[in-house]
Design goal:
With 106 residues, the protein is mainly alpha-helical. It has helices spanning 13-24, 45-58, 62-71, 73-79, 91-103. The chain starts with 12 loop residues before the first helix and ends with a helix.
Length: 106
């Protein structure tokens, strides 16, 4: 995952998430959601959390949010995806939203 220089106008929510994503969503925050030592999440939870923030800010559906991640460099940079990184299926956002409820994170 890489930064995309010039993709985020200074002072935008995209630039803020790109710069502070790891501080806002540290790996320890998601430890209870992914307790198995066998493997790892298919998509890093920090990417999904940042995508949910942007989705809420822009009032996008799951499908629309994933389309933005596929096509909009600002969304990619804010979520920590590189230029050639692929997004994910929209159902993963639904699944991710349900995980904190079962893990008692919130």
């Amino acid at each position: 995952m890489a930064d995309l220089p010039g993709a985020d106008p200074a002072g935008s929510v995209f630039a803020f998430l790109a710069e502070h994503r790891q501080e806002l969503f540290p790996a320890a925050m998601f430890a209870d959601m992914y307790p198995s030592p066998n493997g790892r999440p298919s998509m890093p939870p920090q990417v999904l959390a940042a995508a949910l923030v942007l989705q809420a800010l822009y009032g996008a559906s799951d499908f629309e949010a994933v389309q933005e991640l596929r096509c909009d460099l600002r969304w990619k940079a804010a979520c920590g995806l590189g230029l050639y990184d692929t997004a994910f299926d929209p159902s993963l956002l639904t699944y991710f939203r349900r995980r904190p409820l079962s893990a008692k994170v919130c």
